[in-house]
């Protein structure tokens, strides 16, 4: 597979704190990468760099052959990005917001109206098309955010904890959407700490800990190495085990 994402000797600091330390890997076109790690491992930082939102780093990062440091705007034009935090213009209605996003990506009014209406209806928001989003719940806003990352039909999609605030039925639907996008040949970079979701949707898993990659392979490959579930493998490799005892200690048992 030709690499569509290339990361070479990527390091990132916040002051004296080294968040990413000499990260190296490539992602082939059409792959679904599950990018996992503990809180503070550097997952969201990696995604921000890949989407052109943070150009202050060491090393080289290419997305579809574009140097993200030299031309971040070109990267933003071709990717879809679904972050965890639903920071949207909530004084707008969903249709107004998606119209803005669509036009930023060069879509026509007709294309925007058709895709936005269809996607909102399928997410159960058909009755809220013209309501201001400052009245929406966290889950409703997250649905609009997911649509905004997909409305322009990008070939490369970055998801950073995209299921935050969603109900169980919507989570199932999003997993199906990811599978369908994969069948269409989309490249998906899925950053999460939800092991069961990552295990089900990813065809390759990259495990990050303390800013360094400590495992990289398919779930079956990683399972063969340890004979464990992804959740147990995660705990084993990150050195955070014996959760039962910790739970007892927490409760004072």
Q: Could you state the CATH homologous superfamily?
A: P-loop containing nucleotide triphosphate hydrolases
Cα Rg: 19 Å
Q: State the CATH class.
A: Alpha Beta
Low-confidence residue ranges: none
Q: Name the beta content range.
A: 25-35%
Envelope shape: globular
- Give me the side-by-side strand order of the main sheet: 6-7-8-3-9-10
Name given to the CATH architecture = 3-Layer(aba) Sandwich
The number of strands is 10
What would the CATH topology be? Answer: Rossmann fold
Spatial gap, N to C terminus:
53 Å
How would a crystallographer describe the biggest sheet?
A: 6 strands, mixed
What is the N-to-C order of secondary-structure elements (H for helix, E for strand)? Answer: EEEHEEHEHHHEHEHEEHHH
How many domain units? 1
Question: How many helical stretches?
Answer: 10
Structural class: alpha/beta
Helix content: 40-55%
Mean residue pLDDT = 88
Structural overview:
- The structure is a single chain.
- The protein has helices at 43-50, 72-78, 94-104, 109-122, 138-150, 168-183, 195-201, 219-226, 230-238, 243-251; strands at 3-14, 17-28, 32-36, 58-63, 66-67, 79-82, 156-160, 187-192, 204-209, 212-217.
- With 253 residues, the protein is α/β, with parallel strands linked by helices.
- It has one domain: 3-Layer(aba) Sandwich (Rossmann fold), CATH 3.40.50.300.
- It has a six-stranded mixed β-sheet with strand order 6-7-8-3-9-10, sandwiched between helices.
- A hairpin with a 2-residue loop joins strand 9 and strand 10.
- Helix 3 (94-104) crosses helix 4 (109-122).
- The protein is globular, with a radius of gyration of 19 Å.
- The model has no long low-confidence stretch (mean pLDDT 88).
């Amino acid at each position: 597979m030709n690499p569509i994402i290339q990361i070479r000797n990527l390091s990132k600091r916040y002051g004296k704190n080294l968040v990413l330390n000499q990260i190296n890997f490539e992602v082939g076109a059409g792959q679904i990468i599950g990018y996992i790690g503990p809180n503070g491992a550097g997952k969201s930082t990696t995604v921000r760099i890949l989407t052109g939102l943070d150009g202050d780093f060491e090393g080289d990062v290419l997305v579809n052959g574009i140097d993200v440091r030299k031309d971040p705007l070109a990267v933003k034009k071709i990717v879809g990005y679904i972050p965890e935090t639903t920071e949207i213009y909530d004084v707008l209605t969903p249709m107004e917001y998606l119209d803005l996003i669509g036009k930023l990506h060069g879509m026509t009014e007709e294309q925007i109206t058709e895709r936005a209406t269809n996607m909102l209806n399928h997410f159960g928001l058909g009755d809220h098309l013209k309501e201001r989003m400052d009245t929406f719940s966290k889950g409703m806003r997250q649905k609009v955010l997911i649509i905004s990352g997909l409305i322009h039909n990008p070939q490369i999609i970055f998801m950073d904890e995209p299921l935050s605030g969603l109900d169980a039925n919507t989570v199932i639907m999003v997993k199906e959407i990811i599978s369908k996008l994969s069948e269409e040949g989309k490249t998906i970079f899925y950053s999460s700490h939800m092991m069961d979701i990552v295990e089900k949707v990813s065809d390759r898993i990259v495990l990050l800990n303390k800013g360094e990659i400590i495992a990289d392979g398919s779930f079956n490959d990683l399972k063969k190495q340890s004979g464990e579930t992804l959740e147990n493998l995660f705990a084993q490799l990150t050195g955070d085990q014996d959760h039962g005892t910790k739970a007892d200690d927490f409760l004072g048992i």
